[in-house]
Protein 1
Amino acid sequence: MRRLRWVPLAVLLLGAVEFLVLLGVIKLIGTAPAVLIVVGLSLLGGVLVRNEGLRGWRRLRAAARSGIPPGDEALNSVAGLLAALLLLIPGYLSAVAGLIMLLPPVRRAVGDRLRKATERRVPSHVAGDLFGPRRVRVQKKTPPGPDGSDEVIEGEIVD
C-alpha cells in the first residue's frame, strides 16, 4: 500500500511530460497533424480495447471448455488490454508504450511478469488451477543414511 501513495504524483508527472512531448511534436509537424495523430492513436486504442476484450473472452471460454488451465490466456489478454489502454490514453509516450506492448515478444514478457506476480500473491493450489502444474527439476543430494533413513531430495521450480 505504501507504493500507492505515489500514484497521484506519477500521474501528474506523466501528464506534464506528455504535454511537453505534444508541444514538441506540434513544433515539428504543426498543430493539426499532431492533434490528428493523437486522436487517431486514441481511436485505435478504443478499437483494440474492444477487440482484445472479445478475443480474450473467447480464448478463456475455449480454454475452459477444453480443460486447459485458463491462466496463460487470461494473462495474454490482460497484457493486450494494457497495451490497448495505453493507446487509448491521449499522448505520444503512452501510445509508443502501448504499441511496443503489442509486439509479441514484449507481450509475452509482460505476461510472464504478470504470471510471476500472480503466483507470488495467490496460494499454490490456486496458481496450479490457473496455470497448471509447475515443472520441477529434482536432484538427489544425499544417499540414504546407514540407519535406513529416507534420502533427501531437493528440487527447484523451473517454470
Protein 2
Amino acid sequence: MPDLENAADSLRALLRASSVDIKQVTVLLDGFSPEARVHATRSLGAREQKALWQAAEGVYESGLELLVPTGVAVETAVRHFGRNSLPAFTHFEKRFFRTAQGQVYGANFQLMAPLTGPGYFGVSARPEQRELVVDYGPAALPSHAPAGWPAIVPNERGISRFVYGFLVDRLRRVSEHVSIGEPARNGKPLGSWFVLCREA
C-alpha cells in the first residue's frame, strides 16, 4: 500500500504544479505497474483532472487503439477504470470493444447502472483536434453487444436521459494506458472531467 500511495502522491504533485509538464506525466504513468497506475489515476480530484485535461490539449495523437489496442480480438471487452470529478459515485468503468469492421463501441459499468442503464456509446477519432469523441446519441450506438453485456437501450429514455442523454465526451491521450475526458451535453461542457486507465 505505501508504494501505491507514493505513486498517487507523485502524480498529484506533477498535476498541482503551476505549469504542468505533460511529458513528465506521461513518463511517470508509463513507468508505473498496472496496479499503481489505476490507483494513482483514481486518486485524482477535480483540480488535478482539470489540469490534466488542459495540459493534454493537442499533444498526442489519439487513435482508437488507445481504447482497444491493436491485436485485441473482435468483440473482446477492454476495461478502463475511471474516476470522475463529481461529488458522488466517482468510481466507474468504461468497457470498449471493436467490431469486425474496425468500429469501436462501449458501455458504462457502475453501481447505479440498474437505474441509469448501461449508457452505450460509439467512438470516433477527430484527428484535427487529436481527440476521440464518445457519442451517446441514438445514431452512434452499436447494433449489438458482446455476449454477456446488458441489453442496448436508447440513452434518451427514463432516468438514463438525465445521465447519458444528449451527451458527448471528448477524450485526450495522456499516456499508453491513460486518457482524460470532458463531457458536454447538447454541445455545452458540463464543467467536469474524468480520467480513464486501461487495464494492462
Protein 3
Amino acid sequence: MSTRQHASAVTALLTGLLCATQVGAAPIIGVTASASVPAGGGSDISHIVDGSGLFDGNTGLPIFTTGALHGRAAADSTFVSGGAVPVTTGSIVFDLGGLYALDGMAVWNFNGGDNTVGVKDLVVLGSIDGVNFTPIDGAPNLFAMGAVAAPELAELFSFSSSAAFVRFDIGSTYGNSDFGLSEVMFTGTPVPEPSSLALLAGGVAILFLVRRHR
C-alpha cells in the first residue's frame, strides 16, 4: 500500500471514530430501572422506561421521543409503589447501559384517575459505578402534577452530567398515598470507552507520522 493509500485509510478510520463520538444527543435506548419498593396495582417498574403508553399525537402510533404523548395511566404502562402500607417515599435507580454525557430528561408524571399519586419532591443523583451517587447540578427537585386520567406531554428538563446510572430519591407525592410515574426518558451522547479513545489517539499519531514522511 502506498503512502497516499495509508494516509487515506487512516483518515477514513479517524473520520469514522469521530462521527461515532460526535453523534447528537438522543433518547437513550435500553435503559432499565429498579425500585426500592414493590410494585402495586399490577404495574411494573420496567414500564416507566420501555416506552409503553407513548404515542404520536398526530398518527396515534407508538413512538419513543421526548415529544410523545403518554396515554392515561394504566397498569401495563406505568409504575405505582405498593404494599400493605402506602409508601410516599422511595428510590428508583436507572441503569443507562453505559456511560453517557447526559443533557437532560423527559418525565411523564403519573396521569391516572388519582393524579395525586404522582411524584412531587425528589433529588436526582448520578453515578459512574452504580454505588457512589452525587446530586446532579441543574437537575429538578420538583415534578409538576400529572394530568387527570388523560394523555399528557412530558415535562422537559435540561442539565449536564456524565453518568451511567441515575437515581431518583423521592421525598413526597401530591397526596398521601403511594408514589407513581408514567415514563422517564433520558437524553445524551455515549461516552467512548478507553479502548476507543486509545484507538483514536493511535490513529492520530499514525496520520501525523505518515504526513511527515510524504
